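Morning. Coffee machine broken again, so started the prediction first thing and wrote up yesterday's gels while waiting. Chain of 181 residues, entered below exactly as on the submission form.
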Amino acid sequence: MELGDPLHVRMSKWGERPHWQYAGLWLGSDELGDWVGATAGTHHHRPGMEFHSDVDTVTLFPRERWWAATFHAPGIWCSTYVDMTTPPVLEPGPDGVEVRCVDLDLDVIQRADGTWYVDDEDEFAEHQAAYGYPPEVVAAAEASRDEVWTAAHAGTGAFDGRGQAWLDRLDQWSTRTRLLT
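Came back before lunch.
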């Protein structure tokens, strides 16, 4: 793939229930995984809800990890939003290349003021019973939550500031593209 190539992000809930979807742009990869950008104004939708993003975002879909981390440009209530997911997969889909993963409810979020918290533990518990999450999936989601929490607080791995460099790359690409049109 080349910088700026389109791809589709297609998240689901357990049992192939549709969840968030949006069109993204391939930004590249590093040793952690694949980076996908979405410019301000990108349409996000799921059953019963939709919105257009207020700011640019970049999402790291790590290889063989049970999470996906979205880094937001300044201007909204959070700066980082990490979904615990099944390991993301980049594959051919009906609309071209797509990233697919299953959202497992648990989230680790950094507010705009820099504080971190874990969200949706109640939803995670409810869905374990309602959707029948296998014990190994529950264990992987909880271990991933702990891994992300530790790395985020230590400022290591995906949380070492590299999200800003990828946001800068998205901004440079979108500026260059606007100048060419």
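The chain has a mean pLDDT of 94. Going to sketch it on the whiteboard this afternoon.
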